[in-house]
Design goal:
It holds the Pfam family HTH_TbsP_C. The chain is α+β, with helices and mostly antiparallel strands. The chain contains 8 helices and 9 strands.
């Protein structure tokens, strides 16, 4: 989630601040003009407040809140860089599995999603090496190799994944991550993710499931709706409103 937020911030040259104010509305303030975000049914629009005085009042209040707020610096790479690094270090199949699992999670649950466990299951789904995944996680700041190791052990204990030794020319054998025999569905914290049993290092779909790496149809519809709300109502509408003034 942090990677996605950082990517949006960089795309719009924006800065993120943290305030102790418990309930702030979604509002765009441009000078002394204010645009309020309205939701009703399927309608998502920013509406300009016609009262210039309230626009001025909101501007002053916003500047006061901003002065007291703390700037948030996100250390992780942007989402596209995170995926590109995963592909180069671990492999394209793991990147595809990881991206699909993350995208399947409900938007409102992204802040509590266990991304490390998701990465491990994606790697197991594609038969990647634990060493490579740990290297990617540490280089990108997602997690330390120790954290990857602990989470891997926990998933092994729960019967979700298992490993097999892969001999190397020099040094200790590496561990290949694989999905457990009897796994058909796994709940990773708040994200319900379906995964299929792997019999080889190539990913396959479960015979009785329409898609082995998807949440329920209802979850997909909710995620798509939330994504539309963000991309259309926040990014597009802000640009349209400001450029029309």
């Amino acid at each position: 989630m942090n990677s996605k937020i950082k990517e949006i911030l960089e795309q719009h040259n924006a800065t993120l601040y943290l305030t102790e104010e418990p309930s702030l509305p979604t509002t765009v303030i441009d000078g002394n003009q204010a645009h309020y975000y309205v939701r009703m049914g399927n309608v998502r629009r920013f509406v300009k407040l016609s009262d210039d005085e309230i626009g001025s009042i909101l501007t002053d209040e916003f500047e006061s809140l901003l002065e007291a707020a703390s700037r948030v610096d996100i250390d992780t790479p942007v989402w596209s860089e995170l995926l590109a690094k995963l592909e180069s270090v671990v492999g394209l199949q793991t990147r595809s599995e990881f991206e699909q699992l993350i995208e399947a999670a409900k938007l409102e649950e992204m802040d509590s999603l266990d991304a490390v466990s998701v990465a491990l299951i994606a790697a197991a789904q594609s038969g990647a090496l634990s060493y490579d995944l740990g290297k990617w996680a540490e280089e990108t700041g997602v997690a330390s190799k120790a954290t990857i190791s602990r989470r891997k052990t926990a998933l092994e204990t729960d019967g979700v994944i298992y490993t097999e030794k892969v001999p190397v020319e020099v040094g200790r054998p590496r561990q290949r991550l694989l999905l457990a025999d009897d796994i058909s569905a796994v709940r990773i914290d708040t994200a319900e993710v379906d995964v299929s049993r792997k019999e080889s290092t190539e990913p396959r779909l479960a015979e009785d499931e329409p898609d082995s790496t998807t949440v329920s149809e209802q979850g997909n519809q909710k995620q798509e709706s939330d994504q539309d709300e963000i991309t259309s109502a926040i990014e597009q509408e802000i640009q349209d409103v400001i450029s029309s003034e």
